Structures are given as structure tokens and as C-alpha cells.
Amino acid sequence: MVSQRQVIRSDFLNSILLMSQNRTGIISGLAVEPTDPASMNVIVRAGSALISKSLVELADDTTVSISTPDPDNPRFDLITLKSDATLGYYTGTAEPMVALDTSDPKTAVKPVPPTTPAGETPLAEVWVPADATAIDTIIDRRIFFIADQSLDQVDAVKFDAVHLADGKKQYYGADDDFSIYFDSATDSLRFRDEVNATESYIPRKASVNLAGPISKVTVQTADYTASLSEVVLVDASSGAVTITLPAPSTGAIVWIKKIDNSPNAVTIAPNATEKIDGASSFIIAAQYESYTLVSDGTDWFVV
């Protein structure tokens, strides 16, 4: 059984942040699965990842042998992918289980799995029960890479063909029915539906869009009221600019980014009396500083 952890630890959240900053994450594959029938081995499927901006490929499915279980207490072991395209296997410390539901390892607070070493990307935590004879519970720890400018470095992404479009690398799906490319003019990753000739956008460094596809990407040089699901790139070189948020609604999201290097501030203001992280306004002062704002239906929050 491969599942997602229900208890998220702070060290795992920190690893997500560091991987985002270092352009590290899974591109495809690399799932860790029990053998069939279950044994004290697990299988890591072939796949690829970016580790510190470099493409790393595990060419073949690989078997990893799990160390001898502790006779009295369970543990979590960790499997990672290293930058040299080899797998890392780290044995955790066996200790009494502390969990929200002692029948479900996904809810475990203890035992604690090993920390992912620097320069590696986590693949899975393997649950090793006390005196186990087979492994059947694996918790997926893969963090998938959301491409941005570093897409230009991924020459081996498993798409059918790569074409050059206006000097950019453009990656096409197996039937040429979709393509992906980075557009430096809007600082965004574009997903193009080649069949219907439509595009959607993800801004660089953007968070997950809770409210559906991005509606539009605009560049503003003066005061402006944003729309729901809009990416607003602000050029305040001619003077301070205020971006007013739309009326709050549950799950609404807006991205705002200052793109000029002037000392002029960009002020994010609410639509009415709602708050932004408890304040009446929010200031962006530095070039390329950006914020994702999400609404709970009453106020706005920076995430």
C-alpha cells in the first residue's frame, strides 16, 4: 500500500521550501512500491528528477532491501534519489508508536523518519513494523518539480518532440496535442492546448491555484483593481501604485509581483473593510518580490 502522510512535520515542510529554492523535485516516475508478493524488499520505479537544477535519471526499476526489523518497536526508513543517480537508503530509529490512530502509520508522530540529506530528493518513507516479515505500507514523499525558467535545462523530459518556437524550447505531448514552454515576457510557464489553440499560465514561483485556472496575466503601471485568479505584474517606476484586491470569496486567489527596481512602493489594498493578514494593507518594496493572496470568504491571507 502506497499512501500520503496525514501528519505533516515541520522538517518536511522545510524540505519542500528548500527544494523549491534549489530547483529540486521529481519530474516523472520514481514511485516506491512493495514487491508482489510482499517481501522485505521494495521497488523504486525508473524516473527522472531535477536535483539542484541538474537532470538526474534512474534508468531502470531498482530493488532496495530493507534492513532487519527491530523485534520490539516499529520504525520508518527513508529512500532518496542522489545527484549521482543512485538511491539513498537510511534506516530510522525504532521506537514505540505514537499516532492519532495506532492502526494507521500515516498518522504517526513517532517513530520519526530520517532527515533527507542535502543534495538528495526524498522518494518515500517505508513503514517497518516490529519483527516484520514483509513490507506493505509505503508513504509517498515525492515532491514534484513545478517548472519555471529551469525548464530550459530539462532536455530529456519524456515528451514526444522538442521544437523551437520564437527562440524558446517548447515541449510537445506524445500526440502533439499540448505543449509547455516558458515565456520570459510574462515571467510565466505556458500550457498550450494545441487542439483548441488555448493557453493557461502559471507565474514563476506561484503557489497552487485554489480557484481554478489563472484568468489572465497583466502588467500595471498605475492604480488598479485585480480580478479573481489574476496575476498582476506591477511596474511602479513612474510612481507608487496601489493594487486593490477583488471582493473576498472562499478559495479566491490573486498573485501580485513588483517587477521594477525603483524605490516606489506597491501597496496591496483590500476591496473594503476586510483585512490582509490582519492588516489594512500590505506593502511590496523590492523588485521581483511577489505574494500569493488567498481568501477565506471574509479576509485575505498571504501564503
Structure overview:
This protein has 303 residues and is mostly beta strands. The protein folds into three domains: 139 residues, Trefoil (Tail fiber receptor-binding protein), CATH 2.80.20; 55 residues, no CATH class; 87 residues, gp9 (Jelly Rolls, Sandwich), CATH 2.60.120.640. The chain is built from one helix and 27 strands. The strands form seven sheets. The chain has a five-stranded mixed β-sheet, with no helix packed on it. A five-stranded antiparallel β-sheet has the order 14-15-16-17-18, with no helix packed on it. The chain has a five-stranded mixed β-sheet with strand order 19-21-23-26-27, with no helix packed on it. The chain is elongated and about 70 Å long.
What do the pLDDT scores average to?
Answer: 76
Global geometry: elongated
CATH-assigned fold name of the largest domain: Tail fiber receptor-binding protein
How far is the first residue's CA from the last residue's CA? Answer: 32 Å
User: Strands across the major sheet, in which order?
Assistant: 1-13-12-8-9
Query: What oligomeric state do these chains adopt?
Result: single chain
Main pleated-sheet profile: 5 strands, mixed
SSE order, one letter for each helix or strand: EHEEEEEEEEEEEEEEEEEEEEEEEEEE
Count of helix runs: 1
User: What Rg, in angstroms, do the CA atoms define?
Assistant: 23 Å
β-strand percent reads: 35-45%
| Poorly predicted ranges | 1-22, 146-167, 203-212
Helix content: under 10%
CATH architectural group of the largest domain: Trefoil
Q: How many β-strand runs?
A: 27
CATH class of the largest domain, anyone?
Answer: Mainly Beta
Number of domains: 3
Helix-strand category: mainly beta
